[in-house]
Write a structure and sequence with these properties.
Layout (H helix, E strand, L loop, with lengths): L5 H14 L3 H8 L3 E10 L5 E12 L5 E8 L4 H17 L6 E7 L7 H15 L8 E5 L5 H15 L19 H20 L8 E5 L3 H13 L2 E6 L4 E3 L6 H9 L11 E3 L1 H4 L6 E4 L18 E3 L8 H9 L3 E3 L1 H4 L2 H15 L5 H26 L3 H20 L3
Parallel strand pairs: 3-4, 3-5, 6-7, 6-10, 10-11, 11-12
Antiparallel strand pairs: 1-2, 2-4, 7-8, 8-9
Helix pairs in contact: 1-3, 1-14, 3-14, 4-5, 6-7, 6-12, 6-13, 12-13, 13-14
Bound molecules: glutamic acid.
């Protein structure tokens, strides 16, 4: 798949025009402030040396330390990481978090690497970027292909140079200063957004509202579990191989249990096996893409039956598909709002680390809910007042805040 940052660029350019941002400021917001590409040699298990490429792209630091995940994926190339870094800038601004935006990546297939190789790769990556990160500079976190264990290795590698510094990384294991509720935070945030939208659009938070979820990784599986707890009917889910459909609603606790025991979606006998291509066309009120980028395109959007799309993944809807769906009356909640729960609880983790004081999970979830509700309401207010799409409203709010910070700092 060809990945470009054109999606976020088009949405950005539309916002710049609508907000009348002066050319110089727009140019400063358009460009990443700092980009670092590193070569990562490691000793492979078979004895040879593998050399990988890693990136840390610091898109904008006007509002605070750079913040964003590190992705281990074959498609984590420079253009893609740049695009994801800019999304982090607008996301942290939209959520009013005191951060800028960044993203990291290593071009690799983590499924093909052993734990030993992944650990070496992670340590080498941090040793090569440690001079530009830190609790008040840039704070990495998990993304696709990385998890709490990876973050523990990152914190340790950073600490070898700078001393013990838990606030240097978020999404860590709880035992190392990670936050309660961080693992489920992105999926939980997706469903909190959905609950707010439900009030607005008048659909009910119960079995009458059906959901199809594409992707059953960290984000998709937690979104499914929390949606199930809230009472929604999850009629279809999928992973990289295939999907499963049950018009009466899937038993999500049983499915997660089955997967935790080493099972797969394919081997779960509680519904009809469908292909990934078919998933988008199932009869569901809500479609939640929670897998990779560009999964809803101009070529497959005709199949979509759902009238609402909640972007749990980062840029899953291509710009032309976005425009077309909007003109057909499909409501799309953009990634920078829909999946903001992860970075929001990362912010809580960072503050807990700095204060050396642990919050309980009830507090985490309730503060998350408040932040998501406030962000949703600000976007909703603009949507209603100016007759905009949720995407345009969210981008305009985020970008305006960053532009204001640039001006207040007196850069230009
Ligand atoms: N990778 C997540 C995102 O795309 C979380 C970033 C973070 O916690 O800093 O928002």
């Amino acid at each position: 798949m060809i990945l470009t940052n054109s999606g976020s660029n088009i949405f950005f350019e539309n916002a710049v025009r609508a907000l009348n941002i002066p050319d110089g400021t727009a140019e400063l917001l358009r460009r990443p402030w700092r980009e670092l590409t590193v070569s990562l040699p490691i000793r492979m298990d078979h004895g040879g040396v593998g050399v990988f490429t890693g990136y840390r792209i610091q898109h904008n630091g006007a509002r605070g330390p750079y913040k964003g995940g590190v992705r281990y994926h074959p498609n984590a190339n420079k253009k893609e990481v740049e695009s994801l870094a800019s999304l982090m800038t607008w996301k942290t601004a939209l959520l009013n978090l005191p951060f800028g935006g960044a993203k990291g990546g290593i071009e690799c297939d983590p499924l093909q690497l052993s734990e030993n190789e992944l650990k070496q790769l992670t340590r080498r990556y941090i040793m090569n970027i440690e001079h530009i990160i830190g609790p008040q500079r840039d704070i990495p976190a998990p993304d696709m292909g990385t998890n709490a264990k990876t973050m523990g290795w990152m914190m340790d590698a950073y600490g070898q140079v700078h001393g013990y510094e838990p606030a240097s990384v978020t999404g860590k294991p709880i035992e190392l200063g990670g936050s309660l509720g961080r693992e489920s935070a992105t999926g939980r945030g997706v469903i909190y957004v959905l609950n707010e939208l439900a009030k607005e659009m008048g659909f009910s938070v119960n079995k009458d509202t059906s959901i199809a979820i594409q992707g059953f990784g960290n984000v998709g599986s937690w979104a499914a579990q929390i949606a199930y707890q809230e009472g929604y009917s999850i009629v279809a889910v999928s992973d990289i191989d295939c999907g499963i459909y049950n018009s009466n609603g899937l038993d999500i606790p049983r499915l997660t249990n089955h997967i935790a025991k080493g099972g797969t979606i394919k081997s779960f006998e509680d519904g009809e096996t469908i292909s990934n291509a078919e998933l988008i066309g199932v009869d569901a009120t809500i479609f939640i893409p929670a897998a990779i980028e560009n999964t809803i395109t101009i070529d497959n959007l005709d199949k979509l039956k759902s009238k609402v799309v909640i972007e749990a993944a980062n840029h899953p809807v291509t710009p032309d598909a976005d425009q077309e769906l909007h003109s057909r009356g499909v409501t799309i909640i953009p990634d920078i709002l829909a999946n903001s729960g992860g970075v929001t609880v990362s912010y809580f983790e960072w503050t807990q680390n700095i204060q050396q004081f642990q919050w309980d999970e009830i507090r985490i979830n309730s503060e998350l809910k408040t932040r998501i509700k406030n962000a949703f309401e600000s976007v909703q207010g603009k949507v209603a007042k100016e007759n905009l799409s949720y995407r345009d409203a969210a981008f305009q709010i985020g970008i305006a805040k960053v532009a204001e910070a640039v001006e207040l700092r007196g850069f230009i």
